[in-house]
Task: structure prediction
Amino acid sequence: MAILHTVNKSPFERNALESCLRFATEGASVLLFEDGVYAALKGTRVEPQVVSALSRLRFYVLGPDLRARGFSEERIIPGIKVVDYAGFVDLAVECDKVQAWL
Amino acid sequence: MAEVVKKFMYLNRKAPYGTIYAWESLEVVLIGAAFDQDVCVMFIDDGVYQLTKGQDTKGIGMKNFSPTYRTLGDYDVRRIYVDRDSLEARGLTPDDLIAVPFEDMETGEEIDNIVEIIDSERAGALMNQSDVIFSF
Result:
């Protein structure tokens, strides 16, 4: 598999997600964690960018970070998969390399 | 000597857990409460995420400090403001936020929730009216 892109910054405070989506190529994976999980929520100002990118990228969000911030899986944009820490590790192993958008 | 009462504003712009700002702000608010000043707490930008209901941090091994916001009224914080535009940009509604009750010890008046959703113009005016702004 191609690159695993990780985004741990809020899309409302930093341009990490924006840059990630600009450079990630077809078939790559994007894992949202820590404050990056806010990008996975429905109804936000950045939802259109995420929905548009879902057609060419696989999206994952880290469940424990989501729940810590008060959000359940029902609030997630359809098509984004919720993973736990073991799932995070699996993604890192499956992908050729990891690019962290710090 | 007459006591000087200043208007303090705690201005919160960061999401909880990803950085330490939110927790540090809350600590300073609680410490400051001991000094009998006129205090208000404002949440704008990602700061509005500090007040989301249902935070459960068991999975990330950090302390869930969100229940402490509900006690701010007991620390004599009478004014808590949330910027409406910041909520809307994040797909949030007032129902997503925790309620902070307040009971006036002198008059016995009870308020279910002192969290007030305001527009940016009002928020700016409140900043102007403050003597000191603590930024987090």
User: Anything to note?
Assistant: Chain A touches chain B through 24 residues (CB under 8 Å). The mean pLDDT of chain A is 97. The longest strand of chain A covers residues 3-7.
